[in-house]
């Protein structure tokens, strides 16, 4: 279970997509966890398997659609909105106006 879903009061989300620089993202995850800072890696696609720019395959903690029901929802809605996703626009409106 991801740290955000387990009730941790403070945490960081880091988004991963295929083609990302593995060392840049995974170093942040590693350092945060060593320091005791809650961090979840989130795939921007429906699968948690990520293929980095150097062909290294790794697993994110969760995917964006599953993280939308957590404390990450508002921030992820903004990211998806910037990407032009209609479902994100609706979620953002519900979050702001409900």
Automatic annotation (TrEMBL):
Pfam families, sorted: DJ-1_PfpI
Annotated InterPro entries: Class_I_gatase-like, DJ-1/PfpI
Span of domain DJ-1/PfpI: 12-65
Gene3D superfamilies the record matches: 3.40.50.880
Official protein name in the record: DJ-1/PfpI domain-containing protein
